[in-house]
């Protein structure tokens, strides 16, 4: 069994853009609303990755009392600011803010999270049009590619159909000629699907959702989930100690998909900057 070491690859990828960053001098702007500890930790990691790669990082902090109008005004200002190349609004947002309007407001050229309908829509065409794919799916593809894991012709089962992970990773796998099954809360017999998987990608947010009896020998497992167990320890959606005994490759949590998401954000920021300058 091989551990898919997202932490090591993430560091390599972040270091690999240093030269480009020095030439391009890109800037990433991050909007953070409130003090959600998980969001603050994610944003801290993004800041660290920017510092390591040489991307300028600027953060705008707002209290949870910010109105929808105020947040849209800030986005508009940053869209127009020519010194800003990438712009992300850290999710989740307070309930009174309508997230689809916020996502729509970020100009697609600076949408380095890859959440805008324009960037998502382009992914439906072919891999060549995956200009700014959502960061987590891009990180997963980079991780599989790094370990020379073939995707073409494989049975890929994705559990979870969110707009930011499940749906776009399903499309990216289809773009690479896998046979893709996307499961969700209404899937009748989850384990009938997961047992068929050559590559199993799980993005749900439920500790121990995937147990060893639900996978076949030699399965490749990508665990996107981020949960806290009863002891407060970070864990994924997969029963790692038991599933890893049957897997040929598996991502750990932490140290798998999480750091790859940050690396993908850095890659997207460089890509966005290059496209803005017609490089
Ligand atoms: P989400 O929007 O909550 O989506 C969860 C998905 O799982 C939904 O499609 C849901 O279906 C489905 N689901 C729920 N219970 C299920 C069950 N028992 N069986 C099968 N499917 C089920 O979550 P997300 O944003 O995609 O995130 C998923 C997890 O990944 C979370 O733990 C999150 O923290 C983590 N995450 C990690 C990273 C990273 O960088 N490592 C990045 C993003 C997310 P319905 O919608 O029909 O209920």
Per CATH, the class of the largest domain reads Alpha Beta
DSSP strand tally:
11
Structural class designation? alpha/beta
What is the N-to-C succession of helices and strands? EHHEHEHEHHHEHEHEEEEHEH
Radius of gyration (Å): 19 Å
In CATH, the homologous superfamily of the largest domain goes by the name: NAD(P)-binding Rossmann-like Domain
Low-confidence segments, given as residue ranges, are: none
* Distinct helical segment count: 11
Specify the biggest β-sheet: 6 strands, parallel
CATH topology title of the largest domain:
Rossmann fold
Helix content, binned percent: 40-55%
List all distinct small molecules, including ions and cofactors, that are bound in this structure.
Answer: NADP nicotinamide-adenine-dinucleotide phosphate
Assembly annotation: single chain
**Total separate domains:** 2
Provide a short characterization of the protein structure.
The chain is of the alpha/beta class.
Description of the molecule:
The protein has 11 helices and 11 strands. With 279 residues, the chain is α/β, with parallel strands linked by helices. It has 2 domains: 95 residues, Rossmann fold, CATH 3.40.50; 125 residues, Rossmann fold. The strands form 3 sheets. It has a 6-stranded parallel β-sheet with strand order 1-11-8-7-5-6. A 3-stranded parallel β-sheet has the order 3-2-4, sandwiched between helices. Strands 9-10 form a two-stranded antiparallel sheet. The chain starts with a strand and ends with a helix. The chain binds NADP nicotinamide-adenine-dinucleotide phosphate (NAP).
